[in-house]
Amino acid sequence: ESEAEPVPVLVPDRADTAQLQCRAQGVPGVRLHWEHQGHPLRPDEARFQEHQWREGPWTSSLLTVANISQDRARLHHQYHHLNWDQYKNRHRYQYQNWHQYQNWDQDQNRTLGTFVCIAQNPLGTVRRQLQLRLAGTRT
């Protein structure tokens, strides 16, 4: 089970939906499901729609995320009300990681959340992280 870097999926400027794709193969056949912010997606959640299909040994899943503009507005608001001192103190003892944080303001301003595609069959589980990010100009 690898905790590799999330794969960025860019949402075009002004788009209101985004699509995340995942596919896996295995013997026996693989079943895919998605998590968002650490929780499985609920089938009754109108904002997420999943379409899953098989082609030979491959199972594919296409997850459509709606209402992106809502997230964009929320991120814009958070970004402009950031308490920088609080943020700085939180990472005071992590100088060795500082390079990861120096673009934090731009990154947080663009990230709509991490989705995990989980492929399972009786032999095991593989997880793949996809990170939905805003493409295009800085807000």
Question: What labels describe this entry?
Answer:
139 residues, alpha+beta, Immunoglobulin-like, five-stranded mixed sheet, 8 strands, 21% helix, elongated
Written account of the structure:
The structure is a single chain. The chain is an alpha+beta fold. The protein has a domain at 16-85 and 109-129: Immunoglobulin-like. The protein is 21% helix and 42% strand. It contains four helices and eight strands, in the order E-E-E-E-E-E-H-H-H-H-E-E. The protein has helices at 68-80, 84-90, 98-101, 104-108; strands at 7-11, 18-25, 31-36, 39-40, 48-55, 58-65, 111-121, 124-134. The chain has a five-stranded mixed β-sheet. The protein has a three-stranded antiparallel β-sheet with strand order 2-6-5, with no helix packed on it. It is elongated, with a radius of gyration of 17 Å.
SSE map:
Layout lengths: L6 E5 L6 E8 L5 E6 L2 E2 L7 E8 L2 E8 L2 H13 L3 H7 L7 H4 L2 H5 L2 E11 L2 E11 L5
Parallel strand pairs: 1-8
Antiparallel strand pairs: 2-6, 3-4, 3-7, 5-6, 7-8
Taking the sheet with the most strands, its summary is: 5 strands, mixed
CATH architecture of the domain at 16-85 and 109-129: Sandwich
Span between N and C termini? 36 Å
Q: Quick one: overall form?
A: elongated
Q: What fraction, in percent, of the residue positions are helical?
A: 10-25%
